[in-house]
């Protein structure tokens, strides 16, 4: 196929970054929870799906997309907090595979509950009217909504960074991730910190699910595919590193996009090829701390 | 304790004797035959379809309508009182899983027939099992390969359209109307490949120029990296050959990218269930084919009867294209059973071959050489305005009448005359 122009390659690069933004948004929640709690949250995809369904429900009872942007993360975050308090807390200190298995099973339960409540078939989710259509970004037309997703991801990242780096509570979280025992000795209730971290992580997952809904509609299994991709992102970026997740998410997006341009059949495999290469050269990922899994 | 046991034991022995003598009396009486028949196992139809996964929405409709065909058969008295039963299994859209489930249906459930599948690739896996074991399989999903001598067996029937017929009908309509420069976005497996081959074949008659074919894996959720390339090719027509959730997402994202502004999107098949699941926006203006649309009830009494029966069974809901195939696939087999007066495979095969039927969409029959159902193809367009009800989603643009000339010839498929 001929017709490779500079504009096309630039547009393709941009499409890759936009796709990467979605990966980033999904993966930072996963990375945050792992980095602070060493819980590999296999139910992250299910929280993402729940976010989309909560949005769907709110809109069906008369809400709009902008209300959802606030209400969905809160609702999913509260649900995440309940899950941490009731199911995950009893497993702390028991080895990494306990919460892993629990969340794995939980994801099946959540998907099945949604199937019972909303049915197995999917629902359409219209793009909010003001964000419909495509705009000229200089090298070609790009959907306005995807630009909005990039912006929303940037806002979430900035807020998260400010929260972790500039607030005293963020300081406690970071200290708790480093050495929970010392933090406890200093008189901080670590379990409360972990509760909030899990809540924030799942809130971001729900937010990502809501943002994904207008791109692909809503279906109980929607968390499954992105979970696999998000694990690649967190592994490449380094388990538990938020900065790594951002860099790796964007990189994965661009790799998929560029492979799509030259060999679309290979696009899906390219993600895993990238992961293999990174793991050979740098087993802990870009910014990962060695030994976190042991 | 000991006493009690002896007592109970003696009662049961007496009861046994009574029952045995009553049985012996019945055995010599003329009632025997009826009694035995009533107790005979039901006629079992195995029904492997992908209930979970990207084609789940369509598969659930197949089951619903298949159940209707069974209910109608049973209400009409079955085969001299012998009832039918649908044994549904989830094949998860996976050829290996489908083969295992089919084997289980044949060996463990002892099904008499198999109807089902919803994938060009999976149906071949099912067919492999059934043809080896000499069980009739009526496929209700699109495939060209299943007609070909290599995969065909005398037990293989194909109630669905095949890609050659579908892409032929859509191509003849679209290439004459929208232009000659065509780009393809294709699901990378048998269904997509066969559709593109069909489009290119009919395209020769119109001197169509193929600008390129971009393939994506089954179950893709993001097409944003493929669409800029397709747009840059500047085709008159973008032909999207995928199905189920892939189709929903591809059309939705193509709409977001503004592709419809300058390019006509066509699809070999527009799925009713997908159109409902994705909403009117995504499918607006897209032209494609289908085997059935409930709206042809003004034209055919059989369609009206099928719609009404379906409405009655499912609280006013209307059947979809793939639902209708589930109904047609099961009903033809059961009608053949009635005609043959038996569930014996060879007799039912002969009865199916002899069938000239009109059960839901106008006249149809199975071609002798490949057991392909010769039938009409509808060319439809998705509506977004003036919808009369939730099922009022398509407008029928034209109908290609049933005719063997739209099928590949028996010789081309490798069948001997």
Task: Describe it.
The complex is a heterodimer of chains A (294) and B (417). Chain A has 294 residues and is mainly α. Chain A is built from 11 helices and 2 strands. In chain A, strands 1-2 form a two-stranded antiparallel sheet. In chain A, α9 packs across α10. Chain B is α/β, with parallel strands linked by helices. Helices cover 44% and strands 18% of the residues of chain B. Chain B contains 14 helices and 15 strands. In chain B, the strands form 3 sheets. In chain B, strands 7-6-8-9-10-14-15 form a 7-stranded mixed beta sheet, with helices on both faces. In chain B, α9 packs across α10. Chain B is globular and about 65 Å long.
Summarize the structure.
The complex is a heterodimer of chains A (294) and B (417). With 294 residues, chain A is mainly alpha-helical.
Q: How many helices of chain B does DSSP assign?
A: 14
**How far do the termini of chain A sit from each other?**
49 Å
Sheet of most strands of chain B:
7 strands, mixed
What characterizes the major β-sheet of chain A? 2 strands, antiparallel
The assembly state of the depicted protein chains is heterodimer
Range of strand content of chain A: under 5%
Mean pLDDT of chain A: 90
| Largest sheet strand order of chain A | 1-2
Q: Summarize the helix and strand pattern of chain B as letters.
A: HHEHEHEHEEHEHEHEHEHHEHHHEEEEE
- The topology string of helices and strands of chain A comes to HHHHEEHHHHHHH
Q: Helix/strand/pairing class of chain B, anyone?
A: alpha/beta
Q: Can you give the helix content of chain A as a percent range?
A: over 70%
């Amino acid at each position: 196929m001929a017709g490779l122009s500079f504009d096309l390659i630039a547009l393709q690069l941009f499409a890759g970054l936009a796709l990467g933004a979605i990966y980033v948004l999904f993966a930072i929640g996963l990375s945050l929870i792992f980095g602070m709690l060493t819980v590999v949250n296999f139910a992250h995809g299910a929280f993402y799906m729940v976010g989309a369904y909560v949005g769907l429900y709110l809109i069906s009872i008369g809400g709009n997309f902008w209300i959802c942007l606030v209400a969905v993360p809160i609702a999913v975050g509260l649900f995440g907090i309940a899950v941490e308090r009731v199911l995950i807390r009893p497993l702390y200190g028991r080895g990494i595979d306990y919460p892993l298995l629990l969340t794995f099973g939980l994801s099946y339960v959540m998907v099945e509950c949604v199937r019972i409540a909303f049915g197995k078939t999917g629902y359409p989710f219209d793009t909010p009217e003001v964000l419909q259509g495509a705009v000229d970004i200089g090298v070609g037309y790009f959907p306005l909504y995807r630009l909005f997703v990039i912006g929303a991801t940037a806002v979430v990242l900035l807020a998260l960074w400010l929260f972790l780096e500039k607030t005293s509570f963020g300081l406690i979280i970071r200290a708790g991730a480093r050495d929970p025992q010392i933090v406890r000795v200093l008189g901080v209730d670590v379990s409360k910190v972990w509760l909030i971290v899990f809540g924030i992580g799942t809130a971001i997952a729900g937010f990502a699910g809501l943002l994904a809904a207008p791109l692909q509609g809503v279906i109980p299994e929607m968390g499954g595919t992105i979970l696999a991709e998000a694990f690649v992102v967190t592994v490449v970026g380094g388990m538990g590193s938020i900065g790594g997740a951002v860099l790796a998410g964007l990189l994965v997006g661009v790799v998929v996009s560029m492979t799509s341009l030259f060999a679309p059949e290979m696009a899906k495999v390219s993600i895993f090829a990238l992961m293999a290469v990174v793991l050979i050269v740098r087993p802990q990922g870009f910014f990962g701390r060695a030994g976190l899994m042991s | 304790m000991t006493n009690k046991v002896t007592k109970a034991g003696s009662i049961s022995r007496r009861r046994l004797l009574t029952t045995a003598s009553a049985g012996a009396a019945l055995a010599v009486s003329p009632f025997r035959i009826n009694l035995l028949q009533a107790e005979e196992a039901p006629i079992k139809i195995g029904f492997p379809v992908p209930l979970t996964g990207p084609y789940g929405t369509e598969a659930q409709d197949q089951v619903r309508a298949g159940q209707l065909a069974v209910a109608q058969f049973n209400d009409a008295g079955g085969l001299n009182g012998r009832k039918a039963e649908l044994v549904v299994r989830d094949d998860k859209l996976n050829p290996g899983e489908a083969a295992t489930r089919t084997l289980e249906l044949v060996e463990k459930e002892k099904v008499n027939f198999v109807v089902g599948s919803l994938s060009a690739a999976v149906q071949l896996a099912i067919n492999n099992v059934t043809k080896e074991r000499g069980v009739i399989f009526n496929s209700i999903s699109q495939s060209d390969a299943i007609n070909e001598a290599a995969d065909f067996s005398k037990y293989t029937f194909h109630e669905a359209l095949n890609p050659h017929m579908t892409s032929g009908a859509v191509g003849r309509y679209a290439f004459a109307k929208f232009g000659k420069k065509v780009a393809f976005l294709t699901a990378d497996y048998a269904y997509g490949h066969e559709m593109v081959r069909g489009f290119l074949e009919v395209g020769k008659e119109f001197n169509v120029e193929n600008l390129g074919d971009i393939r994506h894996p089954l179950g893709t959720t993001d097409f944003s990296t493929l669409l800029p390339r397709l747009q840059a090719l500047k085709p008159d027509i973008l032909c999207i050959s995928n199905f189920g959730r892939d189709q929903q997402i591809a059309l939705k994202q193509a709409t977001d990218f503004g592709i419809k502004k300058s390019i006509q999107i066509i699809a070999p098949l527009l799925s009713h269930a997908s159109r409902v699941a994705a909403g009117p926006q995504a499918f607006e203006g897209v032209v494609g084919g289908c085997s059935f649309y409930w709206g042809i009830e003004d034209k055919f009494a059989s369609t009206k009867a099928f719609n009404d029966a379906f409405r009655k069974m499912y609280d006013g809901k209307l059947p979809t294209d793939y639902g209708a195939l589930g109904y047609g696939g099961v009903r033809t087999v059961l009608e053949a059973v009635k005609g043959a007066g038996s569930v014996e495979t060879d007799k039912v095969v002969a009865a199916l071959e002899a069938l000239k039927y009109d059960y839901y969409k106008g006249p149809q029959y199975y071609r002798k050489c490949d057991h392909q159902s010769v039938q009409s193809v509808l060319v439809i367009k998705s509506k977004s305005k003036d919808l009369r009800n939730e099922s009022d989603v398509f407008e029928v643009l034209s109908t290609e009448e049933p005719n063997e000339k739209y099928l590949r010839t028996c010789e081309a498929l490798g069948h001997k005359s």
